[in-house]
Design brief:
This protein is 37% helix and 20% strand. It has 6 helices and 8 strands. The N and C termini lie far apart (34 Å).
């Protein structure tokens, strides 16, 4: 039995875990081996929320885009969001070493210099500046249990 499903992900079929690689001098990130299969055929990197970078497998990005393109053109809030989300997006295919280039505008947005946290978020991957990620975790620790009740109630 294989450890990899049809999408190239592990047995769970989702991106899970946190990894702490470093960017090289050219702004390239070596993807964690565990995530490479799910991103091997292509990915889209774009501005995430909370000052991180979202990485979507091409198929997942297409689904998100299909939802976003239904937003009315007359809605300024929707236009503003789309400009940030799509205007800063870049597509890529990892090289043979599993590296991708994080563009300078995306690195600047996320405050990423060298040390990063690569976090599996189910259908996507988030890339954070490592120190920002640690501060985020520390700040949210007290609210974790309370938030769980709110999140599960909304489902």
């Amino acid at each position: 039995m294989s450890d990899v499903n049809a999408n190239g992900l592990g047995p769970s079929g989702v991106f899970l875990g946190t990894f702490t690689p470093r960017l090289d001098d050219k702004g390239r990130l070596i993807l964690p081996a565990k995530f490479r299969g799910g991103l091997a055929t292509g990915l889209v990197a774009t501005r995430g929320l909370d000052r991180c970078i979202f990485l979507f497998p091409l198929e997942s990005f297409t689904a998100v885009h299909d939802r976003l393109k239904r937003a009315p053109l007359e809605n300024k809030t929707a236009r503003d969001y789309l400009r940030n989300f799509l205007g800063h997006a870049s597509d890529d295919i990892p090289d043979k070493q599993g590296r991708i280039l994080l563009t300078a505008p995306l690195r600047k947005y996320a405050g990423i210099d060298r040390d990063v946290a690569v976090v599996g978020m189910g259908s996507r991957v988030e890339i954070w500046d490592a120190q920002t990620w640690e501060r985020y975790l520390e700040a949210g620790e007290d609210d974790y249990a309370a938030t769980a009740a709110e999140v599960f109630e909304s489902m």
